[in-house]
Amino acid sequence: MHTRDLIKSALDSLGRTKGRTALTMLGIVIGITSVILVLSIAEAAERYIVSTVNSFGSGLIIVANGPPSAGAFGSAFAEEVLTYDDVRALKSKSWMDVGIASIEQMDEISANGVEREGKVTGTMPDEIKFYDIKPAEGLFLSDEDVESRSKVTVLGHEVARELFGDSDAVGRTVKIARQNFRVIGVMEQVGTRGFDNVDKNIYIPVTAASDLYNLKFVQALVLRTKLASITDGMRRIQDVLRDRHNIDFGEEDDFNVLTQEELVKSVTQITDILGLLLSSIAAISLVVGGIGIMNIMYVSVTERTREIGLRKSLGARSRDVLTQFLIEAIVLTGAGGAIGVGLGIFFSFLAIVAISSFQSGWTFSVSTTGIMLGFGVSATIGVVFGYAPARKASQLNPIEALRKE
């Protein structure tokens, strides 16, 4: 038989049992849809995070608590060692451009009879230089505010509107963690930056945040030097901090100095690992679907024993029968793969649209890796799980097959 005839025969056979065929394909459809959805969202998240980090400009250096062996993002159990005095010592160097020490806490803020939760960001004046933001009203934090540990605050655009409506917020008083802070400024409307809605931030001096939450250490330092070589900048920062932390020669740092490029690389590795992990979980349904296809093909062989016997008695070779049943399995999984790819693209688009409605900056694109995996895996499943039933059909004795009731 020609390949065209075998494909037509396979389609006719599958068409006679539409309900069973649809249920058999379901596992393949769900598996491939899940893989494409997961990979597409993972790639979109990676693009979003990388573009956000790059938006800070080049030359960014981050210093995190914990030794380099703890990884780029440190460990939840890493010992805190960084202080405000560390960044003050670094900023006194002639080769330093800008730098901040930061503390972030979720807390209750209230004013004008309104109470809400917001992110309290203990920071320094260079915050607006790093993130290219500025006050729409009043002023941002000054060096004097930080040094004097002043209880002053600058409200994000959305926070100011929620607490004071259209009234002027500058000069008013708000309570943060039940302590009074005087509003000295309101930030311009920015929207989302990274995974953070900047308009919901409440900025206070990092020293005031240390007092407010009784913290001795800060969470991170963000720096930029005037040096042409970022490697030279990292080395000088490392030398200053090692000297301040009394780390002897040969001992590991108790802090981790990262470049912007290393941060992007770490983010990429994390999203790749998460995508692989989630895809592996989704692929379980592909294996289950493959086993279902094998079982259904065995049933089909049993039901069509007389047909097989008749074909072989009329001259069909074992190879023709094997090819016919293999093609049926491949057509079954190929159709399931095509449907799964289509649904994967559709649901990926819906997911990105939904995420974008809460957080701007996400872009949709289909994971080509997911599509190739979808079609490749579906074809492989058709061959692997369809071969055993097809081989059984091809080895039937035509005389015994014709006697089958």
Description of the structure:
With 405 residues, the chain is of the alpha+beta class. The chain folds into two domains: 3-52 and 265-403, no CATH class; 97-221, no CATH class. Helix content is 56%, strand content 18%. It contains 13 helices and twelve strands. It has helices spanning 3-15, 18-54, 84-91, 127-131, 143-147, 157-164, 206-212, 230-244, 260-303, 305-313, 318-358, 368-394, 398-403; strands at 61-65, 96-111, 114-123, 135-138, 152-155, 173-176, 179-187, 192-193, 196-197, 201-205, 220-225, 255-259. A six-stranded mixed beta barrel has the order 2-3-10-5-7-6. Strands 8-9 form a two-stranded antiparallel sheet. Helix 1 (3-15) packs across helix 11 and helix 9 (260-303) packs antiparallel against helix 11 (318-358). It is elongated and about 100 Å long. The two termini are 26 Å apart. The mean pLDDT is 81.
Task: Provide key terms for this protein.
alpha+beta, 13 helices, 18% strand, 2 domains, two-stranded antiparallel ribbon, 405 residues, single chain, elongated, six-stranded mixed β-barrel
The first-to-last residue Cα distance is: 26 Å
- Sum up the overall morphology in one term: elongated
Q: Helicity, in percent?
A: 55-70%
> How confident overall, as mean pLDDT?
81
